[in-house]
Amino acid sequence: MILLIASEKDVASVNIANKLLENYDFEETSDIFDENPIYVLKLRNREIRLVYTKKDLIYTQNITDYFKPELIIYISRHSSASGKPTLSVHTPGNLTEDASYGGLPKKVSVSPANAMRSALKEMERLRLEWNLKYAVCYECTHHGPSLDVPTMFVELGSSLMQWRDLKAAEAVAHAAIKAATSKEECMAVLGIGGPHYNEKFTKIALTEEVAFGHIIPKHMVGMIDVEVLKQCIEKTLERVELAVLDWKGIKGADKQPLMKKLENLGLEIRKV
Fold first, then answer.
1. Can you tell me the mean pLDDT for 9-33?
2. Helix or strand or coil: residue 267?
3. Please, which contacts does 199-203 make with residues 24 or more away whose CB atoms are closer than 8 Å?
4. Mean pLDDT of the chain
5. How far apart are CA 209 and CA 202, in angstroms?
């Protein structure tokens, strides 16, 4: 079972969920979660459930007390000070002790690299086909929850204007279904370096047979210990044998210590 989760507190999330219900044959069931009916869709030999929560999505750390899915897809707003129109995808979890935005300290969720790439590719396809004035990108691993099942966010941002954009919300809805049903498989990698929105990694995933799982941004490289690096590798659904480094997007002082940690973990390295 694949679980799609929307938040009643999130304008974009509700709009994306509405587009899911409009475009796909979800059936309302008699089952209830958080005072809302659960919807079920059977598609391409997959059972997909859509549920609503009254909480902010980043604070649903206990969601697996109620459901035992093989994949969780959060449909969510994305916020940024720039307000740049963005369709994005990422795995949740905390790379450091800071768990201010949900999840657990120094614990990441399991990253479904190929499902995320499928969502990314669908967002890019629809951006071009529908002439959407949005950027499509990966975000780094950040915020809660920190779950022991494959978990990803598909997001619409970055301000209220975009959250209310129903065409963009529909694009994210289709991306969520693509992630839930795609059987594409390619090499999963760990991404390190660069900004929060990594255009290099996004371009690689869109043009090569490479799927990024966890992504560690430039400002966190110096804070990450071997255990967290190891966790990012082990908590990827697919086998990870390669780290892709945004080499110019890593501080000079952090490069040598990082290389030593990666060598100790036995990862191949590709600099881009």
1. 98
2. coil
3. 199/137, 200/246, 200/249, 200/272, 201/138, 201/244, 201/246, 202/120, 202/136, 202/137, 202/138
4. 97
5. 12
Position 140, amino acid: C
Which of 191, 81, 57, 187 lies closest to 137, judged by CA?
A: 191
* CB-count burial class (<10 Å; 0-12, 13-18, 19+) for 79: middle
**pLDDT beyond 90 at 244:** yes
Strands 27-33 and 36-43: antiparallel
CB 79 within 8 A of CB 157: yes
3-state class (DSSP) for residue 170? helix
Total Cβ atoms within 10 A of residue 36: 16
pTM (2 decimals)? Answer: 0.98
105: DSSP letter: T
Q: Could you identify the residue written with the tokens 């697919």?
A: 238
pLDDT 10s digits, 142-159: 999 999 999 999 999 999
Cis amide bond preceding 158, omega within 30: yes
Q: Give the HSE-up count for residue 44: Cα atoms under 13 Å, Cβ half-sphere.
A: 9
Per the listing, tokens 């396809």 go with 125
Asked if the model's pLDDT at residue 82 lies above 90, the reply is: no
Q: According to the model, what pLDDT value does residue 81 have?
A: 85
Amino acid at 216: I
pLDDT digits (tens, 9 = 90+) for 194-242: 999 999 999 999 999 999 999 999 999 999 999 999 999 999 999 999 9
Quick check: 233 and 190 in contact, CB under 8 A? Answer: yes
